[in-house]
Amino acid sequence: MSAQFPDNPFWDFSLEVYGKPRVADSCIYLQDCCAMNVNLLLLCVWAGAAGMGSLDATDLDLCIRRTRDWQQTIVKPLRGIRRACRDEPLGVPDFLLQIFRPLVQGTEIDAEHVEQLVLADTLKNRFDGGVPVTERSMPERAIDAQRSLLAYVAVSAVERDAQVDECLRVICAAAIPGADLALLR
């Protein structure tokens, strides 16, 4: 059973976007091959899609610092346990792993949820008093989301290539359907 967390538009947005075709695979590729944080990828497109503007290196550094310990101490070890239960010969009968693994996965999802609540809170002060959502056009929102993603790529020192750019396009297009993705070409 999942924990009862306060309602949060970032979490709701993330569930919707992550569930769209190719988004999960794109996020996991960027996580596993480029050491990027899926929650930060989703935060970048959420800020843009919600009309809050784009995140810059300072915003992203603050978010990374605020969640680094949680990510390293809680989220990544839970992910490792879940994956080991799926991939490793652990000497435990499969039927027991089939019972145990969903419990770990639920806890991992709850840990991701906690991280997203912290990220949303981190940005709350940044965007209170910013341009209201209704004043940003959809093309501006798409540009903001792309700028945020590119800032996160730069902060993460990820070398852009065709695969990275395609993953970023998939995530951004899912967050803002019909968006002009000119910055990610």
What is the gist of this entry?
By secondary structure, the protein is mostly helical. It has helices at 9-18, 23-34, 38-49, 57-87, 94-127, 138-155, 162-175.
Describe the structure.
The chain has 185 residues and is mostly helical. It has one domain. Helix content is 71%, strand content 0%. It is globular.
Quickly list its features.
185 residues; mainly alpha; 71% helix
Mean pLDDT: 93
Uncertain ranges:
none
Quick one: how many beta strands?
Answer: 0
Major sheet attributes: none
Percent of residues in helices comes to over 70%
Ends apart, CA distance between termini: 42 Å
Radius of gyration based on Cα positions: 17 Å
User: Can you count the helices?
Assistant: 7
Which structural class do the helices and strands define?
Answer: mainly alpha
Structurally, the number of domains stands at 1
